[in-house]
C-alpha cells in the first residue's frame, strides 16, 4: 500500500509499504478514506517528537472497517468510523473517567511498532474502546467528520478547562486549527463575546465566520494585550492554543481576577509560569491533551445534525502522493490544516 513516511526533519516521503494486518484479537483494520495532518505530525516534521527515519506518520483519520479481530464486538466490517488520535481500552479507571489519553494500554498512531494514519490502511488496536461508528449516510461526506479526530475535541477541552459558559467573555490566543475550533466550542457553550488574537488575516476571517465577535491581528504581546483590554476590559475565560511563552503571558495579561485559563497548545517554547500571579489574582489554569474519545459521540451527533461545521479549517486538499506538499504548506503557514483524500 502507499503510505507517508517520516524520513527526517522537513522530509516526508510516500512509499510502498507492507499493509498492516490483524495482530491481536481486539484489532481492527480500517481502510482510510480521509486523513489530516495534525499538530503532532507537524512537530515531528520540525524535528521534535523522537520519530526515527522510516516511521509511519499521521494520527487523524476517518475510514471504513475492512477486517475485525475475533474479539471485537462494537464495530463491524463496512462500518464508517472516526478515530481519535490515540487508542484506548475503554475499561480502565482512566477510560471510565473520560481520560482515555492516560489509558495504560493506550498509544498513538505512528509510535514505534504501529502504523501511521496517512496510508491506505491502518491497524487500530483496542478497537472497541477506540473507534466511534458514524452513520453510513456520511459516506462520501467524510471530510465533515475529520475535525472530530482532534481539532474539535481540543477546542472543546480547552473551553471546558477555561470554564466557558453562558454569558462569559472569552479570548482565544492562537489562530490555528485548535484555536479556530475553540471559537465554535465557546459559542456552543454560550459565551457572549469571543475575541481571537492571531497572526494571520485569512485565519482571523475564518474565526469571524465561526462566530468571533472581534479579532486582533498582532505579533506583539504588548500591543495585543492593549487591544484586548481596550475592547473587553479583561475577560472571564482565556483559551491558550499556541503553546508558547508569549501566548501564556498574553493569557495572564487579559484574564480577569477570578477568571480561568484553559490550554491545549502543545508546550514547545514555555520558559516558566509565575504561580504568584495565579495565586494573587485567583486565576485557575487547566488543560492538557484532549481526551477526544470522551467527547466524540456527543460532537459527532452535532456534526451529523449540521449543528457543528468546522470544514473551513481543512483549507488544503491533497492526495496521498502530494502529502509532503501539505506538510510544507502548513509549515510555511500557507494552510491551516491539510486534508489527505484517498
Automatic annotation (TrEMBL):
Residue span(s) of domain Alcohol dehydrogenase-like C-terminal: 179-301
Residues covered by the Alcohol dehydrogenase-like N-terminal domain: 25-126
Signal peptide residues on this chain, from the entry's feature table: none
Keyword entries, A-Z: Metal-binding, Zinc
Top-level taxon of the source organism: Bacteria
Cofactor annotation: Zn(2+)
PANTHER family: DEHYDROGENASE, ZINC-CONTAINING, PUTATIVE (AFU_ORTHOLOGUE AFUA_2G02810)-RELATED, ZINC-TYPE ALCOHOL DEHYDROGENASE-LIKE
Name of this protein: Threonine dehydrogenase-like Zn-dependent dehydrogenase
Organism of this sequence: Antricoccus suffuscus
Biological classification of the source: Bacteria, Bacillati, Actinomycetota, Actinomycetes, Geodermatophilales
Amino acid at each position: 500500500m502507499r503510505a507517508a513516511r517520516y524520513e527526517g526533519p522537513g522530509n516526508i516521503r510516500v512509499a510502498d509499504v507492507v499493509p498492516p494486518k490483524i495482530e491481536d484479537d481486539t484489532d481492527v483494520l480500517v481502510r482510510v478514506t480521509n486523513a489530516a495532518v495534525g499538530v503532532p505530525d507537524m512537530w515531528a516534521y520540525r524535528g521534535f517528537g523522537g520519530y526515527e527515519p522510516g516511521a509511519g506518520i499521521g494520527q487523524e483519520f476517518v475510514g471504513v472497517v475492512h477486517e475485525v479481530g475475533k474479539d471485537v464486538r462494537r464495530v463491524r466490517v463496512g462500518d464508517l468510523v472516526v478515530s481519535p488520535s490515540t487508542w484506548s481500552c475503554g475499561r480502565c479507571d482512566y477510560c471510565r473517567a473520560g481520560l482515555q489519553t492516560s489509558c495504560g494500554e493506550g498509544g498513538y498512531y505512528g509510535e514505534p511498532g504501529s502504523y501511521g494514519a496517512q496510508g491506505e490502511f491502518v491497524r487500530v488496536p483496542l478497537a472497541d474502546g477506540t473507534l466511534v461508528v458514524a452513520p453510513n449516510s456520511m459516506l462520501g461526506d467524510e471530510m465533515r467528520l475529520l475535525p472530530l479526530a482532534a481539532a474539535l475535541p481540543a477546542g472543546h477541552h480547552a473551553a471546558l478547562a477555561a470554564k466557558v459558559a453562558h454569558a462569559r467573555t472569552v479570548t482565544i490566543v492562537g489562530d490555528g486549527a485548535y484555536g479556530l475550533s475553540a471559537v465554535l466550542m465557546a459559542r456552543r457553550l454560550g459565551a457572549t463575546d469571543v475575541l481571537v488574537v492571531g497572526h494571520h488575516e485569512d485565519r482571523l476571517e475564518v474565526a469571524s465566520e465561526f462566530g468571533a465577535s472581534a479579532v486582533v491581528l498582532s505579533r506583539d504581546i504588548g500591543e495585543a494585550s492593549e487591544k484586548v483590554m481596550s475592547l473587553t476590559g479583561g475577560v472571564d475565560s482565556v483559551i491558550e492554543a499556541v503553546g508558547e511563552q508569549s501566548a501564556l503571558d498574553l493569557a495572564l495579561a487579559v484574564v480577569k481576577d477570578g477568571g480561568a485559563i484553559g490550554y491545549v497548545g502543545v508546550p514547545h517554547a514555555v520558559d516558566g509560569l509565575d504561580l504568584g500571579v495565579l495565586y494573587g489574582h485567583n486565576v485557575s489554569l487547566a488543560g492538557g491533551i484532549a481526551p477526544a474519545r470522551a467527547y466524540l459521540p456527543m460532537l459527532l451527533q452535532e456534526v451529523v445534525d449540521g449543528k457543528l461545521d468546522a470544514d473551513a479549517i481543512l483549507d488544503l486538499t491533497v492526495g496521498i502522493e502530494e502529502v509532503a506538499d501539505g506538510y510544507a504548506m502548513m509549515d510555511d503557514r500557507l494552510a491551516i490544516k491539510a486534508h489527505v483524500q484517498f
